[in-house]
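Hi support team,

I've been running sequence recovery on a batch of backbones for a student project. Most finish fine, but this one hangs at about 90% for roughly twenty minutes before it completes. I'm not sure whether the input is malformed or the queue is just slow. I've pasted the structure tokens below so you can try to reproduce it. Let me know if you need the job ID as well.

Thanks,
M.K.
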């Protein structure tokens, strides 16, 4: 997210002006800083190729059929506009949602692609891909959505895996919980700051 710093200026009880610097702090992007942005399927597809993207995926206890209305409700509640579902083939083993929003203050667009699928047997997988022109928005957004999806995960310990692609060498990096608290990640293959 963005870093904010400031100074508080006030007058003390004796009438003397006082100045107190505020330590810089990081604003994390979360869903309540978004507003739904209606968009056509055509414009959605036109906008996303230029955006940065990251994704999370985890096993779910619900089938795609059961998960779709729950995820739809969660996304709408968290300020995403859901595009009309254009799926030609409605299969109980596969569902896909597309969602769009913009930052309330920075007006930067955010797109989501959500895939719910039954792999083999009882294995249900939820994959959420977040896309934005502002790369730092993506990790905070995915972290927020991952927490809101805890009720759907197969087990409480089933942590979402966040994959980051290095822009320099295109290596895939799995972000650990320790890395998530950092302002940036260093690619182990090329040393690039992500």
């Amino acid at each position: 997210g963005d870093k904010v710093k400031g100074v508080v200026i006030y007058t003390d009880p004796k009438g003397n002006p006082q100045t107190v610097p505020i330590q810089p702090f990081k604003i994390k992007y979360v869903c309540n800083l978004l507003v739904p942005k209606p968009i056509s399927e055509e414009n959605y597809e036109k906008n996303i190729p230029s955006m940065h993207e990251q994704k999370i995926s985890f096993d779910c206890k619900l089938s795609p059929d059961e998960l779709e209305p729950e995820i739809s409700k969660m996304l709408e509640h968290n300020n995403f506009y859901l595009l009309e579902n254009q799926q030609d083939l409605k299969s109980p083993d596969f569902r896909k949602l597309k969602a769009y929003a913009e930052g309330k203050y920075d007006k930067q667009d955010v797109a989501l692609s959500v895939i719910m699928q039954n792999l083999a047997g009882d294995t249900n997988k939820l994959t959420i891909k977040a896309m934005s022109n502002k790369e730092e928005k993506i990790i905070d957004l995915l972290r927020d959505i991952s927490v809101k999806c805890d009720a759907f995960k197969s087990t409480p310990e089933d942590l979402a895996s966040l994959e980051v692609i290095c822009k320099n060498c295109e290596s895939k990096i799995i972000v650990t919980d320790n890395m998530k608290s950092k302002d940036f990640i260093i690619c182990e293959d090329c040393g690039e700051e992500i």
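--
Follow-up from support: It reproduced on our side and the slowdown came from queue contention, not your input. The longest strand covers residues 17-26. No action needed from you.
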